[in-house]
Amino acid sequence: MSKCIGCGAILQTKNMEEEGYIKGDNDVKRLCERCFRIRNYGDYKIIFKSNADFEPILKKIGTTNDLVVFVVDLMMMNKDFKSIIQYFNQNILLVFTKRDVLPKSINDQKFIDYAKNLGIPFVDCLVVSSYKNYGLDVLMDKIEYYKTSNQVYIVGYTNAGKSTLINKIIYNYSDLKDTITTSILPSTTLNSVEIPLREDLTFIDTPGLIDSNSFINLVDAKLLKKIFPKKEIKPITYQIKEKQTIFVEDILRIDVNNRNNFTFYFSNSLSMKRTFKKKNKLLHLKEHIIRVRPQEDIVISGLGFIRVSNSDVIKLYIRDLVDVYTRKSLI
Ligand SMILES: Nc1nc2c(ncn2[C@@H]2O[C@H](COP(=O)(O)OP(=O)(O)OP(=O)(O)O)[C@@H](O)[C@H]2O)c(=O)[nH]1
Ligand SMILES: [Mg+2]
After folding, report:
1. If you measure from the C-alpha of residue 73 to the centroid of ligand 1, how many angstroms do you get, rounded to a whole number?
2. Residue with the nearest Cα to atom 6 of ligand 1?
3. Is the pLDDT of residue 25 over 70?
4. Can you tell me which atom of ligand 1 is nearest the CA of 160?
């Protein structure tokens, strides 16, 4: 059975609603209708998957000795890494991607040190940006150095930027024409996709695991477009002098009581507002009472993080299921 070259789904001509659907006459291209539409019309169709669909793929990788490249979106640093690395005993190369979205002034070593403190057993760690072609030569050198066979697996959470990274590698380091489908939607890649870059090097893209506590897996495509920063984030600082409330669109409410500085590392496409007046907006969302210490970040999984200067207890309202917690400041 042949697979779609864009997402890895097994091709079928019977059911338009199911993954891998292909019109008979498109057979030569081996690209399913969904990939065709994403690529040509930006027309996204969410295929709902659960991690149970993808776990067998990761388990199988764990039975090999092949190098695993674990791709993590820098904005999603907080993720529970263990739920992915538990599958692997082989060499894991940790790659933080989307470097372009965080301010240039931050030293990359900060991210690497942060990762080291999380106790992840990776052989090496580096920071890249597929958009800016940043760090890719170093990545290729490290892959050459750590690979134990001709196969290299690319794994991570959905939306991390795995397929985009492989496409950039195809473009930069091979004469291949085929590319993998990428999109802002979760579960773009549906099955493993093999890219034979050279005789002695095949990349295998995999579907990302879904983090059901990330904001990105709970919202529609329109909001997703705003949430994902397309360029460097310009942090927004609010100097709070008295009781105030900060709103981010109609998705987040933060009530602050005391003098403090809050710096938001969120996509600048999201509109933010602060108000001194008492408002009842968004109180129906899930309430979190957060005790934050000086120089800590409040992380809102999938949305971004807020650096806080002074210790305080604040109230935060966000959609149910979204993980909210504090960590030592990343910046
Ligand atoms: N700013 C920025 N965005 C990126 C970068 N790499 C990928 N993206 C964006 O991140 C989104 C997800 O990218 P994909 O490559 O489809 O992610 P994936 O990890 O393959 O996702 P799944 O196939 O769902 O597991 C897309 O909107 C990409 O354009 C990058 O280096 N910088
Ligand atoms: Mg993908």
Report:
1. 8
2. 161
3. no
4. 19
For residue 283, CA distances in Å to 144, 176, 251, 262, 280 come to 53, 53, 11, 21, 6
Give the HSE-up count for residue 291: Cα atoms under 13 Å, Cβ half-sphere.
0
Task: Indicate whether this model's pTM tops 0.90.
Answer: yes
Pocket test for ligand 1, best of 100, 153, 155, 159 (most atoms within 8 A of CB): 159
Q: Averaged over 178-197, what is the pLDDT?
A: 92
Per-residue pLDDT reduced to its tens digit, 126-162: 999 999 999 999 999 999 999 999 999 999 999 999 9
Q: Where are the domains of the chain?
A: 1-43, 46-211, 236-328
Is the pLDDT confidence value at 108 over 70? yes
CATH label, 46-211, candidates 3.40.50.1820, 3.20.20.70, 3.40.50.300, 3.30.420.40: 3.40.50.300
Annotate 66-80 with DSSP letters as a single string.
-EEEEEEEGGGTTS-
- Mean pLDDT, the chain, rounded, equals 92
Ligand 1 site, CB within 6 A: 97-98, 100-101, 129-131, 156, 158-164, 182-184, 186-189, 207-208, 228, 230
Report whether pLDDT(76) > 90.
no
At residue 188, the pLDDT reads 94
Count of beta carbons in the 10 Å neighbourhood of residue 305: 24
For 199-224, write each residue's pLDDT tens digit. 999 999 999 999 889 998 888 888 99
Question: What are the helix (H) ranges across 19-173?
Answer: 33-41, 51-62, 82-85, 108-117, 136-146, 162-173
Residues in the chain: 331
State the closest ligand 1 atom to the C-alpha of 186, by its place in the atom list counted from 1: 24
DSSP output for 313-331: EEEEEE-TT--EEEEE---
Among the bound ligands, name the one nearest to the CA of residue 49: 1
**Given a cut of 60, is residue 26 above it in pLDDT?**
no
- On whether the CB atoms of residues 251 and 224 are closer than 8 A, the answer is no
Distance CA 155, CA 128 (A): 15
